[in-house]
Structures are given as C-alpha cells and as structure tokens.
Amino acid sequence: MEARKKGGGYRRLLLAAALICSGAKAGEWSGYVAADYSYFPQSALNAQQFEHGRLSFSAEPEFYHSWENDDSLTFVSFFRWDEQDPQRSHIDIRELLWMRARDDWELLVGIGKVFWGVTESQHLVDIINQTDFVENVDGEDKLGQPMINATFLREWGTVDLFVLPGFRERTFAGKGGRFRPNPEIDDHSAYQSAAKDKHVDYALRWSQTFDDWDVGVSHFYGTSREPRIIPTLAPAGLVLTPFYDIINQTAVDVQATLDEWLWKVEVIHRSGQGETFNALTAGFEYTFVGVMESSADFGLIAEYLYDDRGASASTAFEDDIFIGGRLAINDAASSELLFGVIADLHESTRFYSVEASRRLGDEWVLSLEARFISSVEKRDPLASFRHDDVIQLELAHHF
User: Fold this and answer.
1) Rounded to the nearest 10 degrees, how much is the dihedral formed by the CA atoms of 111, 223, 158, 263?
2) 3-state secondary structure of 51
3) Residue among 139, 118, 115 at smallest CA distance from 253
4) For 339-348, what is the mean pLDDT?
5) Is 14 helix (H, G, I), strand (E, B) or coil?
6) What are the helix (H) ranges across the chain?
7) Which end of the chain is more exposed for a tag (fewer CB within 10 A), N or C?
8) Does an H or E element contain 160, and which?
C-alpha cells in the first residue's frame, strides 16, 4: 500500500517534469547500464536464502537540461533486476530536481540526493536520504528524497535549509536474499509519528572554509533514517519490525588538508531514539605521492569509530578501528583500488572490504567488490551476515 502511495507522488512529479520540458530545447542524456555477478562462497545461514551466486542487471539513465536564465532540470532514475531476490529488484527516482541559481542563492525543488560527510569508513552525519540497503551493505547507495532546498551563499558561510515532505523506508533483502537478519525483516513498518511516512522533516546546515579547514554544522529534526529493529510475534512466527522514531540530531564535520595529510572527523548527538547518545568517527589519510618513482599515489587511511551506547548500540562499530589504503595508479584507464578492515577493539570481529575499478576504452568500466566477515561473536550485529562473504564483478557501459 505504501509503494502505491509513493508511486502516485512520483507520477505527479514526472508529469510536472514532462510539462516543463515540453517547451524546452533538447537536453542531454548520460548514465550507464551494467551487468554483475556476485559469488557467495559460503552456504547460506538460513535454508530459505539462495546459495552461491546471483546475476543482476542495473541501469541509471540521467537527463539534464538548462535554460538561458540558468534554471535547470535533472532527472536520474535507477533500475535493478536481481535473479535471486525479488525485494532487490526495484525502480527508484534518485533525482528529479528543478534548480534556480543566482549569484548568492539557489533553490532546488523535487526529489534529490544530498551527501554530508568526510570520513571513509562510515558517514555519521549523512542523514537527508534513506539508505538503499539492498544495493550495498556499505550504506553509500541512497534513495531519492522529496525536498525543497534553499541555499544562501554569504561571506560568513553557506546556509542550506531543507523541508523534507514524505519519508522513504529503508530497503531490506527479502526472505530468500543474502545480507538479511535472521529472522527476516517484516514487510510492515511502525512509526512513532501518527503521520507515519507523511511526516514533514526539517534540516539545516552551515558550512564554511577557513584556509585549509572545511567545517560543517548541521541539525536534523524528523523521522530517523535508521530504524530500530524490534522482534515481533506475527501469525507466521517471529519477525523483525523496523520502527522509525522522531529524532533530533546535531552534527559537526571537519576536514583539514595539510600538505599530504588529510584529517577528518564526524560527530553526532542524537536524541529521541532510545537513550540519547553521541557517536564519532575520526582519523586521517596520508598520501605517498609518486610511489617508487611512479605516477601512482598511495593513501594510508586510519580511523576510529565510537558510539557511547557501547554494546547496546544498534551499530556494529561502537568501539572499532579502520585501517585501509587507497591506490590511484593515475594511468589512462583510471585504475583505482580501495581496501581496508574494520576491527572491533574488544572482540574478534573483523569486516574486510575491497573495491577496485578500471576503465576499458572510453565507455566501459570493470569493477570488483568483495566483503568478508570473520570471527563474529554471536551477539555482534554482524552475526546474521557471517555466512555472507561475497565477491562481485561488474561490467558497466557508460553513455
């Protein structure tokens, strides 16, 4: 029922976009289509989950048009078909934004994506968009968010004001999918607000650059993008119900660029979601330029992840350290490699991640992703994923 309601809103926005474009000159299309195969070397934890491999196709076409008065329209859609998990097959409007920009202000109306954050291992302050969790467990894929965003550019800083009508529920893998909790996530969600997914959220952010320092301070009031997962007894048995609280979150993010050093910190203070808590991610990236007299650069990354709720935190990374590296070959094929491990400082849990990509000619990109989880304690939030090690190879055609 919720999907039908949201689809109606999208259709109205698409119709509005079509009417806007009807009197405009031809715009520009770009984007990609991709095919990927994921291999799971371990047997599934639950007999209902699929075994070993899955084939999937995706596409993300983008349309952009600008007018002579500098108004512009951006439309980005996303399609995914998954061989094994119907819940992972989905369509989303990532962006459908009209923008009017002047010298000292901007106004964006429609569906958009906004990214806040500076650290590598996780993005605590990034809260405007809902996570598209069926796309990737790293949390970096986001669903489009209906919004009105006004930006004011001043000498003392940039101020962004957001009105966010409508809420997007987090996507989760289906009963037969991988990377799902055990028992499964219920199709029905619960809300603290009587308005449910019609609650209007608000956010503001001030940001400024002081020489080598980039500073951002933000506040969000509204429905938490991160649900609490509550065990519920349903007619079919025990399930997990996502519960969306009304929260206040104040955040600070700082990045300092000092020669080869990049220092980063994200801090949040959140209330309304159980006990009030604070969380932090902080660290650095040091870049070795021209490794071994080559054109390649290598960045050494180290970050500390902390949540003062301790063992009761909903995240697996409440007192952990991330160590990783970023290799940029700087060749004609734009070859890159990012790898790292998040290690719990009190338990033996380790979460390994590898991402690599390389262009093949002008239009093709070959990408590799791998995630491995080892030595997981039974009470760790990652325990349900302990059999979900995965290696994924993707070939994408960009146009």
Assistant:
1) -110
2) coil
3) 118
4) 94
5) helix
6) 2-22
7) N
8) strand 157-165
Measured between alpha carbons, how far is 61 from 78 in angstroms, rounded to an integer? Answer: 7
Cα 299 from Cα 108, distance rounded (Å): 36
* Residue 105 tokens, joined: 């202000």
The answer to whether residue 234 scores a pLDDT higher than 50 is: yes
Per-residue exposure over 158-192, b if at least 16 CB sit within 10 Å of its own CB, e if not: ebbebebebbbbbbbbbebbbbbbebbbbeebebb
Residue 13 token pair: 């926005």
What is the DSSP secondary-structure string of 123-187?
Answer: -TT--SSPB-TTT-TTS--B--EEEEEEEEEETTEEEEEEEEES--PPP---TT-SS--SSPBPS
With beta carbons less than 8 A apart as the criterion, state whether 283 and 309 touch.
no
Give pLDDT tens digits for 145-154: 999 999 999 9
Query: What's the whole-number mean pLDDT along residues 369-387?
Result: 89
Q: How many residues does the chain have?
A: 399
Residue 143 structure tokens: 């669903």
**Backbone phi, psi, residue 385, to 5°:** -105, 10
